[in-house]
């Protein structure tokens, strides 16, 4: 496990990290407007309805992989003594690509047709939405990873 993975998955803090991740997701979804935003909100609601606690479980289970995926970007910021959030924003395309590589693989292997179908419908817009969430994600990593 990466350095960032060890920090974010430390049992003493993991549930707080998961709570903050869910808050970011909720805020990002709420901020979406227009027809695209309606589709994202509907998709998120559908995924939340799969079963109680589904989103929390997914975030909890994916956190180690997400942390490992963005660890090189995290380390670059640390090595250069840059603020983590600012470095993540500067590297938002790389952050998005790293995270989406994980979710793409998980969606491809999913046995849940609702989750898989919702992901496939929204995937085309995903990179821009993940990039939009990078400032909040960088702030979360700065808060918990420092």
Q: Would you report the number of β strands?
A: 0
User: How would you spell out the order of helices and strands?
Assistant: HHHHHHH
Helix content: over 70%
- Separation of termini? 17 Å
What's the total helix number?
A: 7
Structural class: mainly alpha
Could you give a short account of the major beta sheet?
A: none
**Low-confidence spans: pLDDT under 50, at least 5 residues?**
none
Q: Tell me the Rg in angstroms.
A: 15 Å
- General shape: globular
Tally of distinct domains: 1
* Oligomeric state, counting identical vs distinct chains: single chain
Describe this structure in words.
The radius of gyration is 15 Å and the shape is globular. By secondary structure, it is an all-alpha fold. The chain is built from seven helices and no strands. It has helices spanning 3-8, 14-31, 34-48, 54-79, 84-90, 92-109, 113-145. The protein has one domain (3-145). Helices cover 84% and strands 0% of the residues.
């Amino acid at each position: 496990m990466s350095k960032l993975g060890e920090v974010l998955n430390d049992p003493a803090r993991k549930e707080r990290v998961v709570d903050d991740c869910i808050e970011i997701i909720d805020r990002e979804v709420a901020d979406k407007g227009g027809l695209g935003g309606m589709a994202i909100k509907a998709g998120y609601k559908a995924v939340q309805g799969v079963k109680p606690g589904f989103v929390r479980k997914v975030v909890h289970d994916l956190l180690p992989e997400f942390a490992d995926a963005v660890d090189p970007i995290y380390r670059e910021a640390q090595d250069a003594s840059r603020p983590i959030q600012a470095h993540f924003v500067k590297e938002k395309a790389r952050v998005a690509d790293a995270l989406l590589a994980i979710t793409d693989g998980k969606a491809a292997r999913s046995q849940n047709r609702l989750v898989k179908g919702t992901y496939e419908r929204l995937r085309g817009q995903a990179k821009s939405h993940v990039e939009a969430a990078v400032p909040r994600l960088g702030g979360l990593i700065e808060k918990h990873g420092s």
